[in-house]
Amino acid sequence: MASNAQNAQGTILEISSTAGGAKTITGISATSPMIVTSAGHGLVNGDVVAIAGVVGTGMATYLNGNTYVISDVTTNTFVLVGTNGLTLTYTSDGTATPDTWAEVGEIVSGDGFDGTSAVITKTNLASTAVEKDVGLQDFGSLKLEIQIYDADAGQTAMRAAKTNQTQKNFKVTYPNGETRTFAGFVMSFSEKFGVDSIVTGSTEILIDGVVTYA
Known about the structure:
Blueprint (H helix, E strand, L loop, with lengths): L11 E8 L3 E2 L2 E2 L5 E4 L10 E5 L6 H5 L3 E5 L5 E4 L14 E9 L3 E6 L6 E3 L10 E3 L6 E7 L5 H12 L3 E6 L5 E14 L7 E14 L1
Antiparallel strand pairs: 1-8, 1-13, 2-8, 3-4, 4-7, 5-6, 5-8, 6-7, 9-12, 10-11, 12-15, 13-14, 14-15
């Protein structure tokens, strides 16, 4: 069987920045997951959008004020990952406002999505062997090795997120277009320098919640 392995060169990491321009919604399907129609929206897989102003039975309460990762993007539609609209009705209106992204430059390598679930022991006196279950999934953290460059907008945003202890959205995009989108906290941003070397550093993003693959 031919290998489907992809070259890591060209992988990028982005951190959420300011809100972008709102996209007008003209339809939302009563499906699981829900499909949004928005003509010429210009979004891509893995983007994060905030929904507002939707009118419809149940759908307004379900969607408005929430943010979603999107997938299965076409020119005029996108899917809201993790939604279920089977009992809801769309009537009219609505906007989807995306995060804008700042690319974190000078990344050398990354290592993460390494968390493990807690082990729950269920053994009792009638058990004939140790009985176990698993707790909530934990996606761990993403650790990066970088080359320090203060003028890089992404590195500046990472430092600010650490200083302010602000939760941010992050998106990893591989060269074949596959994405991993998640929320997290920048826990560290260290620097290293020495004789006959460049200034390098490392940073760790603690993942909060799930990682969405798109």
